[in-house]
Amino acid sequence: MTSRTPLYDEHLRLGARIVDFAGWEMPVQYTGVIDEHRAVRTAAGLFDVSHMGQLEVTGPEATDAVQYLTTNDVRKMTDGRAQYSILCNERGTVVDDIIVYRFSSTRYIIVVNASNAAKDFAWCKSHLKGNAAIRDASDEYALIAFQGPLAAEILAGFTDVDLAAIPSYHFRQGKVAGRDAIVARTGYTGEDGFELFTAPSDATPIWQALLEKGKARGVAPAGLGARDTLRLEMKYSLYGHEITEETNPLEAGLGWVVKLDTPEDFIGKAAIVEIKRKGLPRALAGFKMTDAGIPRQGYPILIDGKAAGIVTSGTMSPSLEYAIGIGYVPRDSAATDTEISIDIRGRARKATVVETPFYKRKVTSE
Amino acid sequence: MNAPDDLKYTKEHEWVKVEGKTATIGITYHAQSQLGDIVYVELPGEGETITKDETFGVVESVKAVSDCYAPISGKVIEVNDPLAESPETLNEDCYGEGWMVRVEMSDVSELSELMDQKKYLAFVAEETA
């Protein structure tokens, strides 16, 4: 069974190529991945990410419940804040990566990956502690990501929300194009931008308004293809690639969202403490190819000619115009400038570990 | 869709242009369009032999890796080397500047297994229906 987002007809109208993604008929590209990628870096791109799931946790002890489910410190959040976090299992490996939105101490929305939405809901429901309730509210929201250096300026023309008062990882509720929306300064591209939660029936008019207004200045719809290359240039993890139920957040470089020093427990905390005590044998490194070839998920990483790691993601970087990759390597091979090789169809191709993010946003006068 | 009437085609969306014993090989408009932005091409070297229905090259888009299958067997006599530096040529001009290799055919009878323009267009229509 496949599902369609409220923007499906809009994608067809815009000439999108549709692919199945986690059971959703999603646009992978409209005019081309490279064009769309560059539109996001230089102007702004509109992404339909309505396939992502929204789990709502409510109740007098909602804060404690979310604290127990997630690795980051929820108690530090105030109303209107968003927090990147992880759902771990008891083994200390990753069930999903998520963003937690706090509306009040008794109401949170957790945004989860489409591919994990059903699993996450079942997981959270069966691990929900105290006086709190959880429900899958995914059908009540469309989600549009509007990302790029022009996003704030263009969105400002359509909303009563003071965008300057929303720092990164904060959100406010208000009107966009005359319709109720949650306006969050979050994203997955490395650019400034917003994610707009709306009622499903309001998604198309908001999408059309932003696109119509921005078109002349280079704003374009962007598909899942560009979403992937944009996140890859930032070395943002993608579930199923860098993080899975076989990887722990520390080796994935996500220790900054795993708070081991809080008095409260969370699922997987004991296991992660133990993983940390033992030391991490591998680390997630970013590398650029110095030989020809494009690294892809699953290709072996060779150290001194021997298979010692594995590529989790790779592409030809549209911004940098060379091939880049992310992969797990032995901890002592993860330092910048380390020479490694990638086994590309049986041939060892040279690569160098580099600093990440691969792409650094140009400093704007904002 | 775009497929010239003087070429022969495979089900894997390669085209062949025959001139005597020489065959020029490339990928079709449909193939490049399905791939999207092509960013990497790997081709055999001059003098190597390629075998019908076996991989002779690789084309990569931003998203994916695709094998190219040899439409016919023979020895590679010329390679379109500039493609390595400008793989986007495959998107821009797949039947012209985007040709991949020229091959001296070892068995001309293999050509009879390829589709003509009409059959190929019908095949694509059916595949994308």
Question: Which overall shape of chain A is indicated by the principal axes computed on the Cα atoms?
Answer: globular
Low-confidence stretches of chain A: none
Oligomer: heterodimer
Largest β-sheet summary of chain A: 6 strands, mixed
SSE string of chain B: EEEHEEEEEHHEH
Percentage of residues in strands of chain A: 25-35%
Strand content of chain B: 25-35%
Distance between the termini of chain A: 45 Å
Q: Stretches of chain B where pLDDT falls below 50 for ≥5 residues?
A: none
Query: How are the strands of the biggest sheet of chain B laid out side by side?
Result: 1-2-3-9-8-5
N-to-C CA distance of chain B: 13 Å
Keywords:
heterodimer, A: 366 residues, alpha+beta, Gyrase A, domain 2, Alpha-Beta Plaits, 6-stranded mixed sheet, 6-stranded antiparallel beta barrel, 8 helices, 20% helix, globular, B: 129 residues, OB fold (Dihydrolipoamide Acetyltransferase, E2P), 4 helices, 9 strands, 21% helix
Overview of the structural elements:
The complex is a heterodimer of chains A (366) and B (129). Chain A contains 8 helices and 19 strands. In chain A, the strands form 4 sheets. Chain A has a 6-stranded mixed sheet. A 6-stranded antiparallel β-barrel of chain A has the order 14-17-16-15-18-19. A 5-stranded antiparallel sheet of chain A has the order 5-6-7-4-8, with helices on one face. Among the domains of chain A are: 136 residues, Gyrase A, domain 2, CATH 3.30.1360.120; 87 residues, Aminomethyltransferase beta-barrel domains (Alpha-Beta Plaits, 2-Layer Sandwich). The longest helix of chain A is centred in the middle third of the chain and has 12 residues. Helices cover 20% and strands 33% of the residues of chain A. The model of chain A has no long low-confidence stretch (mean pLDDT 97). The N and C termini of chain A lie far apart (45 Å). In chain A, strand 15 and strand 16 form a beta hairpin. Chain A is globular. Chain A has 366 residues and is α+β, with helices and mostly antiparallel strands. Chain B is an alpha+beta fold and 129 residues long. Helices cover 21% and strands 34% of the residues of chain B. Chain B has 4 helices and 9 strands, in the order E-E-E-H-E-E-E-E-E-H-H-E-H. In chain B, the strands form 2 sheets. Chain B has a 6-stranded antiparallel sheet with strand order 1-2-3-9-8-5. In chain B, strands 4-6-7 form a 3-stranded antiparallel sheet. In chain B, strand 2 and strand 3 form a beta hairpin. Chain B is globular, with a radius of gyration of 13 Å. The chains are: A alpha+beta (366), B alpha+beta (129). At the A-B interface, helix 7 of A face strand 4 and strand 6 of B.
